[in-house]
Design brief:
The protein starts with a helix and ends with a strand. The protein is of the alpha+beta class. About 20% of the residues lie in helices and about 35% in strands. It has three helices and six strands; from the N terminus they run H-H-E-E-E-E-E-H-E.
């Protein structure tokens, strides 16, 4: 299952329909600043640092502090995984966040 499909299924189980692709999902709901993220918010990424084209999406699962924001996503190689948004890699390719509810 790809990243946007994972979120479609997850939100559908909670009674909310999301668009099918990560690019379409990135236009759904309200914008959220990085410092205001909450569990359930969607986080969007590009393939490379500095680019703005949305190619990947995840969902925030936990906010411990400003340096530890966990999110789940579906990786084609690893399946569904949880990572820290504030890691060097994910912070570098992070584009924006939205609150779909």
């Amino acid at each position: 299952m790809d990243c946007s499909g994972l979120l479609c299924v997850s939100y559908k189980s909670a009674g909310l329909s999301l668009p099918r692709t990560s690019a379409e999902q990135s236009k759904f709901g309200k914008p959220v600043k990085l410092g205001a993220l909450e569990p359930g918010d969607l986080v969007f990424f590009s393939k490379k640092k500095g680019r703005k084209k949305i190619t990947h999406v995840g969902m925030v699962t936990m906010v411990r502090n400003k340096k530890d924001i966990r999110f789940i996503h579906s990786s084609t190689k690893l399946g569904v995984v949880e990572n820290n948004l504030m890691s060097n890699y994910y912070r570098g390719v992070f584009v924006k966040a939205r609150r779909p509810f």
